[in-house]
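Please, structure for the following, as tokens.
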Amino acid sequence: MSDDGWPRGQDCDDDDTDEDTPEIINIKRRVYQALRSIDSKGDFACFRGLNGILDPKLHINGLDRVVKLPLSPDDTNAIIDVCHRSPFGKGEETLVDTSVRKCWELNTTEFDIKAPGWANYMKKIVADVGKGLGVADKVSSIRADPYKLLLYEKDAFFLSHQDSPKADGMFATLVVCLPTEHEGGEIVLNHQGKSMQFKTSTTSMAGFSYAAWYSDVFHEIKPITGGHRLVLTYNLILEGTDNVPSAPSSESRALRNALKFWEPRAEDEGLYLLLYKLSHMYTDSSLSFQSMKGSDRPRMAALQAACEELGFNLYLGNVEREVRGSCDDYTNSQGYYEIQDTIDDSTIMKQVIDSQGNLVCGQVPVRNSEYIQMNVLRGVPTDEDYSGYTGNEGTSVCHFYRNTAVVIVPKRLDVYFRFRGINGSNQEKLADWLNRLLPLIKDSQDTESREEFNHLVELVLEHNQAYEKYHEIARPGWRISDTFSIIAQGLHTIGDNELFEKTIKLHTAFVSPEIYPCIAESLVSQEYATVKKALNYIFLKARDYPTKQVLVATDLVSACIAIPDERRPSEWADLLSWREQKLAGLLPRLRNGSRDELDSIVRILTLYPTIEKLQDTITLQRQVATCGITIACLAKLGTSYIKGYLSVEGFRVFYQRTFEDLVKDLDLDQGLEAKPVANIGPFRTDAQCKSSALESADLISIYEQCLDFDIPLSVLHAGIIRAIKQSQSLKLAFPNILVPFLRGIVSGLPGRTGDGRRSAESSFVLRALLEYVLRYVQSRSTAVASWSRAPASSCRCKDCTQLNAFLESHTQEVLELKISSGRRFHIHQAISKDQTILEETRLSGSPYTLVLTKLGNPATMWKSRAVDAVKNINNIGSPTALDEFLGSASYKSLMALDIVIKDRPIDDYFEPSNSDVGVRKRSATSELNPEGASSMAHDTEVIDLT
């Protein structure tokens, strides 16, 4: 630290000094010294020996008795026998490694404190700890939750680490050392360059002691050199959301003066914000103005008071600097891998909150030079991720530097700070911001909202200018046209016509329909030639997106025609001809075979319908699109016709012929993809339905349209049964496509299924369910010892390819992957929700080895499929509804899975029918095996699917 009290590091980085003018240095020094003068009476840790404390009556559940203190050798060994090794956290992993932590532990479910007065003693200890940590005024809101019983034997230790928060509101750790004689085991704590050492051994023969420290403090347990150390650990939880106490005004005066000095100089010096690194580091879950520790509490209180008085905004955020680069394969003298050549270096504030805990913005880039202190985010990293040797790529390491910082921003520059967090990956936040302002700026008296809107527009336009000039360094992922559409609405509202016109021209592509009424209003006073030129200009902007051009041609013309007659020029009637010409040229271009095109296609056909156009459209869709898309197209056309939007002679004949042709090639598998989901039990997947997949809603529409157009349902029935037989993805297709469809039939599709066709529908649903069970669950008698599983990842990286090959193998039971922690975590994400894969990390060599082992057996997997089938059938309707719809005997046989347990052919469940249209006059119950419905109902095997 320099003579003036401003901290200076050993290695003064250019980033900290070269950017700072003498005036900036003066501003930072003033604010720093003002905050430095505000302190608390507490410290980051405290320790005290206790005499005469109550015996806790420690009951070890595994021994089923209370053990006496100090521990005898026999009791010590007995406790160790029922203990387990203590793990430690490393990133997302929880590991057991005795080279890092060597200790025995019991969880709170494995021991009890039987002494009735122990709770009162703990209250006294917590009150004492509150004074030591500087939170005496918060003692009534502090709760001590028991966490572990730890036993350290000779040579036991724990390397330097930080405690991870175990619960919301946890701010510190309390350790009570119980009477058991030991030597060594000192607690060494380090925080902000200050060190403490606590010796529990001095009172260990017959006395107690306690130690407490804030959870972000680095600490280690030195090796036990003799005896045994027995401790109870507690998590200290701060309950409630009391306000931070106010700091004395005399201490805040210097701070107010420093902020007053900075505010008028902020823009001239380019110092739009200041970051102040707090003494403690807070987790994302505990980050709040009310959770400040130690000296952070009074300083935050002083800042809040000064900022509120002087017109500054105050925020909190966790900052992370990530530096990646090449390194040697050995650590330096300080115990970390030193980067030789930097590959990437970035610093962001991950999330920014206000005094109410509201998320203001996130992923905000910050610079080291914006810190009041110097050399922040430098030196020894907070954490590192060492990749190990990776062949031709050599060795690499990623250093992480983390801290919690206060953001101080003059209110008039607040938009500038929040705008920093907008980039190509989260531009929807900018849209939300602008949309929030749109209704506010309608009030001409709301000058604050209008100023915020104008400042934000200014920043967006400046960014766009920089993007055009410096494409490679700006934010290339921005969908800037979407932003300009919202901005244009606001500019029209406040009456800035010049900037409104400029904003329309700045659209790089599609101009949103939301501003078409604004555009139409702005064109009323223009010559007709200018109007057509404007429409052509906007139409051509979307030249690469035919569906967008359809919207321009239809909605923009509609907005123009919607202008009242008395204000709309008579020449505008010609715009209808302009629309027809544009749409005629667009229809042949809609040939990508995507669901997104369907509304545009139907919109054009509805405006200008002919049977030839309808036939050509379906023919084209069959050539370029999936079965699901073509079915959806037909369903949309049918809906448009039934509602009266589409009117063309011969449509019913066209529809029936097209439907009968399409249903022959019904495909349930197109567009479905498996993805893992959380589940307790055997491997589970869910469907990732792409837009090209067949959708149950379209099947339901087709079903209803068949009824409206008097088309025999037997055609649809046959197509669906055929599709079930041909499907290779029934696990995904049945619950996602057919269950909602069949549910509609069973429930009657609101009055659609009359008594005349009920029997035919019952037979169809029963046959569909039997085909599904037979093909998905499969015959139990033919189940073989196969270890094959469904693939877990759609990623095509080398690791996921190996993973999927392992999962699909019929014989391989174990997979070993020697990969870095980042790649291990990638695999972990893919399989973490599969309870039939055991995941272990072998802590030897570099990098470590991830070991995956398949659990379960074929019988278990068969049972899992059976459970799936029963669950899916139950989702079609209630037991009462299905029993009534299918017939009691049919329903019972189906739910007993007779078809896969007794290996009966499906045809045995149905009698031959003489109906030429598939309409059955007998119930499904009477169509079961000739042995008789009653005998089948009694001859079922009950299996346990729980």
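The radius of gyration is 36 Å. Residues 422-508 form one domain.
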